[in-house]
């Protein structure tokens, strides 16, 4: 049943992308070196910080699930005019300087041609590949949005149940298997103690006792928190590698976030978790399908939006 579902999703990807007027190699004529320039910037950062893969995946997800994949998450707030960056859910999003560096190089090579939204998508793809994940092509041609408001940010939180998270995914046209797949990106992510401290010290019996004890040493408990909001990897085993170890760990009650652990416990999702834990290739193929589809959510194309010259501000 799982294989059949993944096959159906494969069939749906190309129509979604083509309807949005996105195409692989969109900049082939207008900026032939665009993808190579982005890759070079990501490679440089990855060489010094392999955890950036998780950061870029999170940025891409947080961008696409608000106004679609339009780089609205990159806009800086101004006095009296807040942007999505001020939303609580985006407080720990990182990697903005990578997008800035790529944009600066692209503006020099091909002024006002490559969108910030496409830079996020390409940078995420490259980071996944560098971390040992699947190599895949992504259609480009997105344009940058003209709206960025913190009140519009509605994302599934770390304390969500499977059904609560799925409601938000469903609003964006995503299905359960795609949600379970995309949350598998936590195989290269980390979280601050404040996102899961309420589970520690025996407060949540679904957490492995040894993991609980180790995390208490780092984070404290809800009643006695650590002085600093430190962070830990969501995949406690192969933290820097994009693989399927995340699923194996949550099957063993080693999920750090509540939503992660619930994936292995909820009757609707635990079968998918078991399937991905047993078959890395299946997970990676499903991931390609899901992230390409996510990258096509409500994109701006043609004459919509703009091509920002600076990813942090709207063009004047």
From TrEMBL:
GO terms for biological process: hydrogen peroxide catabolic process; response to oxidative stress. It is an enzyme of class 1 (oxidoreductase). InterPro entries: Haem_peroxidase (IPR002016), Haem_peroxidase_sf (IPR010255), Peroxidase_pln (IPR000823), Peroxidases_AS (IPR019794), Peroxidases_heam-ligand_BS (IPR019793), Secretory_peroxidase (IPR033905). Keywords: Calcium, Disulfide bond, Heme, Hydrogen peroxide, Iron, Metal-binding, Oxidoreductase, Peroxidase, Secreted, Signal. Its cofactor is heme b; Ca(2+). GO terms for cellular component: extracellular region. The record marks 58 as: Transition state stabilizer. Residues 21-315 form the Plant heme peroxidase family profile domain. The keyword Magnesium does not apply. It catalyses: 2 a phenolic donor + H2O2 = 2 a phenolic radical donor + 2 H2O. One of its GO terms (molecular function) is lactoperoxidase activity. Ca(2+) 2 binds at residues 187, 235, 238, 243. Substrate binds at residue 156. Belongs to the peroxidase family. Classical plant (class III) peroxidase subfamily. Belongs to the peroxidase family. Ascorbate peroxidase subfamily. This is Peroxidase. The gene is LOC107494323.
